Amino acid sequence: MNVAEEYGSLVFNDRAMRTRLPRDVYKSVQNSVKTGTPLTLTDANVIANAMKDWAVELGATHFTHWFQPMTGITAEKHDSFISPTGDGGVIMNFSGKELIKGEPDASSFPSGGLRATFEARGYTAWDPTSYAFIKEHTLCIPTAFCSYTGEALDKKTPLLRSMDSLNREAMRVLRLFGDMDSRRVTSTVGSEQEYFLIDKALYLGRRDLVFCGRTLFGAKPPKGQELEDHYFGSIKPRVASFMQDLDESLWQLGVASKTRHNEVAPAQHELAPIFATTNIATDHNQLTMEVMRKIADKHGLACLLHEKPFAGVNGSGKHNNWSMATDTGDNLLEPGDTPRENAQFLLFLAAVIKAVDKYQGLLRVSVATAGNDHRLGANEAPPAIVSVFLGEELTAVIDSIDTGSPYAQKDKTTMEIGVDVLPRFPKDTTDRNRTSPFAFTGNKFEFRMVGSSASIADANTVLNTIVADVLAEFADALENAGDFTQALNKLIRKTFQTHKRIIFNGNNYTDEWVEEARRRGLFNFKHTADALPYFVHEENIALFERHHVLTPAEVHSRYEIMMEGYIKTLNIEALTMLEIARKSILPAASGYLRELIDGLAAKRMIEGLTVEPESSMIKKLAALNADLYQKILELEEKLGVESADTTEHGKYYSAVVFPAMQALRAVADDLEVWTAKDYWPFPTYGDLLFSV
Ligand code: ADP
Ligand code: MG
After folding, report:
1. Measuring CA to CA, how many Å separate 337 from each of 176, 353, 408, 411, 641?
2. Probe ligand 1: pick from 320, 321, 456, max atoms within 8 Å of CB?
3. Structural domains in the chain, sorted by start
4. pTM
C-alpha cells in the first residue's frame, strides 16, 4: 500500500471538499466549521450531491447518520441512494436535507426517563467538524443525536457543548495575556487503546466471552505474565499481519494510527494514534474499536476490548492524553520560553489541578462501569482514587511558588511568576509514574482510568467542563483586577496552596497511599454502584447547567442509564455463570466423578490393589461438586430480588449479587484444577492466553 496516497482515501476530508466543491460553497463549509453557524439549504444540497458522487465512485450504495447513543457503541441505519426515475429505473440521489438531519426512532435507545417527559421522536444532526467517511459500501455521516425538544440522547452532544464552554473560557484567559491572534481553543486527545487477541475458534467455545466479553470462570494457568516477557516483545506473525491490516484500514479512514506494540499480559497489545481535536479523536476511537473487531475476525482472531477479560493478568485501559490548543497551534500545557508564556502555562496548569481536585469524584464517575470495576484498584491499573502526578521538577517549582522557598534546581533562587523562565521538563518515559491515574507528561495530561471498551466521550466531557469552570472563575477574578501581574501571582500561589492535596508523585498501588488519601480527604469510590450516585450531587448538576453541557433532567437521565447499565451487565454475567455452571461444569465434574467411581469399583475386584488416589479424589470432587451446586442455588436466590429504586438496586448488585458470583467462580475454578482435561467442557486460560 502506498500510504501517503491511500491515507484518508475513504474520507470526505478537506482535500476532497476543496477539489469537489465550488469555491464559495467550500468557503461557507469552512466558515460553518469555524464559527458554528448553520449552512443554508442551498449549500447543503451542493455538498450532499458532491459527497454522494464521491461516495458512489468509491463503491458506496447507502448512506447513514452515524451516532453514539448512550449505549456507548455507535448506531447506524442505512438508507440507499436510490430514487425511482418513473421509467422503471433509478438514479442515485442524496439531498442536503438528508445530509443535515435524520429522524431515527428514538424510542429504542436508552433515554433514562427522558422519554416519559419529552417526545419519543429524536433526530440526528450533522457534525461538520468530523468528516464523513465510507465503511462497508456506506457513506457514514458523523452526527449528534437529540430528542425533538433538544435533550441530548447521545455522548457527542454534551462533548461538543463542553468543547464550546472550554473554548469560551480559555479564550477569555488568553485575551488577558494579550493574545489577540487566537480565535479558538480546542481540547486535544490522543487515546491509547489496549486490547487482547485470541483464537476465534477457542473464543467461540467460551459462552462467557461471547455473552459478556470477559471470562467468568478460569483457573490460573501455570504461566501468566510473571516473566515479563511479553511487553514490547517481538510481535508474532499472525498478530503482525492483523496489525498491518488494521493500520492500513484505519489510515484509509483517516485515523492516524501511529504506534503498535505488545502489552504486559500474554495476548495483550496496544495501538496509539496521533492526537486530534477531541470530538474527532472520540469518533476515531469508536471507529478504531469497530475496525479492530472486524479485522480480527478476518484473521480468525477475536479482539477482546473488555477491561478485564482474564482474572489474574493485566486488564485493558485507554490512556486518554489530553491538552488544550489554540487554532494558531499553541499547546496551552507546553511550558514556554518566555516569562509571559510561563506565567500563562502556570495559570492553565493551576486550572487543571484545581479542577481535578474540586471535581475528582466526577472524573471517577466518568469512568465507572461494571467492566472497569475489575481494573481500577487491581494491581496494574490506577486505583479508584484520583490524584495528579506532576513529577519532581514541576512539583519543586510549585512548592517554591507556594512557600516562597528557594527553588533548588535553579541557582537556589525563588521562582518568580512572570519574571523567571521555567526549566524544560523532561518528557522521556523513564521519568513517568505509571501508577498515577492522572499524570503530567511534559506537555499534556494522561488520564489513565478510562476503560478499554468505553467511549472516551464521557471522560473528556467532564475534563473539558471542569477545566472550563475553573478558567471562568480565574477570568472573572483577573478581568476585574487592578494590577494584572500582581493578581495573577496571587491567584496562582493561592490555587497551588489550596489544591496541593491532589498532587501525589509516589506509588499509587500501595496501601499506604490509600490511607494517606483518606487523611487528605480524597474520594475513594471503589465500585461503580458507590461512584455513580455522586453524579447527581447538586454541585455537579449546577456545574453542568452553568456551562450548558447538561440540563438537570439530562444529568438525572444519564444517571439512570448508567446505573441500569451496571445492573444489566451484572445480571447478564450472573445468568451466564448459572447457565455455564448448570449445563457444562456440573455435568463435566459429575462425569469425571463417575469415571473415578467406576475405576475404583473395578480396582476393588482385584485383590491387593490400593484404592488411592481414586478414593481421595472421589471424596474431594464429590465435596466440590456439592459445593458448586450449593453456590448455584445461592446465586439463583440472590438474583431473584427486585427493587423499584435504581440506586438501591445497584448497591444490592454490588454488595450481594457480585460476591455470590465470586463465590461460585471460586468453587468452579477449584473443580477445574481437579478435573481431567478431557472432561473440562471449554478452553482453559492456558489455551486462550497462548492460542495465537
Ligand atoms: P508515550 O506516552 O507512549 O510515550 P507520547 O507521549 O508521544 O507517547 O504520546 C502518547 C499519546 O499522546 C499519543 O496518542 C500522542 O499523539 C498523544 N499526544 C501527544 N501530544 C498531545 C497533545 N498535545 N494533546 C493530546 N494528546 C497528545
Ligand atoms: Mg502513554
Report:
1. 19, 22, 20, 18, 63
2. 321
3. 3-153 (3.10.20.70), 162-550 (3.30.590.10), 565-689 (1.20.120.1560)
4. 0.95
